[in-house]
Amino acid sequence: MVNVARKGGDEHPFSAKVSSAVFYGVSSVAIMTCNKVVLTGYNFPSAKILALSQIIVTMIVITFARVTGLVTIPAIAGGQSAIFRKVFPLPLFYVLNLAAGLMATKALSLPMFAVLRRFSIWMTMVGEGYLLKRYASFEIKCCVGAMILGAIVAAADDLAFNLYGYTVILLNDLFTAANGIYVKKKLDSKELGTFGLMFYNCLYCFPVAAFMVYQEGRAGEVLEFEYWASPTFMALFSMSSILGFVLTLAIFKCTQINSPLTTTVIGCLKNVLISYGGMFIGGDYVFSMVNFLGLNISIVGSLVYSYYAFLAKTKTTKPAVKTISYRIDLPAQSDQATTAAAHRAAEEGAARADAGSPSKPPT
Q: Computed over its alpha carbons, how large is the radius of gyration of the chain?
């Protein structure tokens, strides 16, 4: 038997990487702006109920798509207990990330929210190294340092300092990193597929989210909310709920096609728009020169970081190796003739493989 080893694995096309990144960036900007208007502009009393509505809508959309044959969800032997083991701990990180993000959106101005989200990059980078054995380049680490520095400078002179808001945004960063890394691990296993993982993730998140809503005790305030009769508010609330499904799909696709770190990078890129747009949307940004300087340091760092993240290759502990094996049955011959025949057969097999492969093995 002759083995031909090739470096590298199957890569997604560049167009798929870019389109999934743009899809995530656009949907993230849309839902964050919509959530901000609903929670701050209309002063909706419960971010957790908004999160619960997004989970419910996601399950409804996927169920409808499954019934109509638009998507398929693989069957798993062993029932719900087996499925739960395959999905966990993703539901836990997902619901905590969603709840913390919504609470932070309500508690902080959009620019400060965007800046403090930079810490999720460092957390993702550390998590990838520990769990996925992927290590960022030195240039990317320097850019992360610049983004963290900018965040510290901006936060040091934040005239609207909110300890509760800062706490939940840092928790949001931690849960974002954990959620992204485990999404990648679960999707790489290809046991449930994208929509299967999304559906069961939301299914197991639902009881936890419902319990959090119950513990909050604001259901009465929500029922008596004065803007339920407003067509504009209802349109925004419905849009936010639907965008919850769209954003989840975008995150899953971007993470699967690219990586958790790249998904976080795209989050920084869209935060460039949020940081500046938030100075005019929401009306809760308090201008300060030091704060504004910190914002710009962090934004410049995120732009340079994004450049390196897309163009620099990630170092891994073990490069992927693709091995092709050929079985060669030879008649009894002399040792010299057998060796020569084996070499000729191996060369012919490698030539046939090269004809159907985009890259040739090194000589």
A: 25
